[in-house]
Amino acid sequence: MASHTDRRAVLGGLAVASIAGPAWALDKVSFKVPDGACDCHHHVYDPSRWAYAPTAVIKPPPATLADYRRYQARIGTSRSVAVTPSTYAFNNDCTADFLKVQGARAVGVAVVPADVDAATLKSLHAAGFRGVRVQSGGGNPLGPDAMMPLAKRIAPLGWHMQLNLTAPLYAEHQETILKLPVTVVVDHMAGIPGQEGVKSPAYAALRRFIDAGKTWVKLSGPDSGSRSGPPGYADRVAIARALVTAAPERCVWGSNWPFPSSNANRQKPDEVLMLDIVKSWAPDEQLRHRILVENPEALYGFDPRHRPAPPKS
To answer: Domains in the chain: how many in total?
Structure first.
């Protein structure tokens, strides 16, 4: 049996502070988080105010604006990108409320029908949305066939298209993705399974997208598809490290808070570890600053002249 000291060992460069059940837990982020650091992927769930869609497959417990601000205070980020989850189908009201309160500290990514009208897009733009999401999987209202028609509708606004597809679909639809007339943002390292790593056809497709000059990737969800597991998630971190090495100017970070999943038995990752693990693929302060601050400013339009401090707990 491992000793208490062993369980607190430093694994994968991560200083582990405590253990909560089977998961490793950190008390705080072990590096200085810069002002203006952005969590580029999270959701908000508030079913007491906005009912979940009847078609929802993922129905997590409440994770409200107030909950998220406490999370920000804990990890030290000050900006964020709120993404409407599949749980709300095409209802963006919960996310819009978050944006209204957060103001310049947040932008939104909406989920809309492929035939969305210009007036709706204009209204969403005024509310702080700057992109739309297309994803595969249970409960999601859009699929890959929506990419091109929707991209043409959002192009006049200068919005981006965020993709959350299964790894094989990136390879299958790569020619269409390369032709999209908008900036593309790929979620969660393209969902590449850890055991496939950089040898995956999806990784090859993702590199094609990035090398073409208009695709960004979210270094998020290291726990998803990891065979090696916590606290290091070494197999998925290897993918992130390869992407940062190839194109540091095209990488952003996201927590994926509150870590929704259709698997009720899934062990959620540690909240603080999801930021601390950035050290594993961005070991120096300058590179972390680029990924956490400068790149989100370039992609989402945050003001580089005003980099706010995190909210106080």
So the answer is: 1
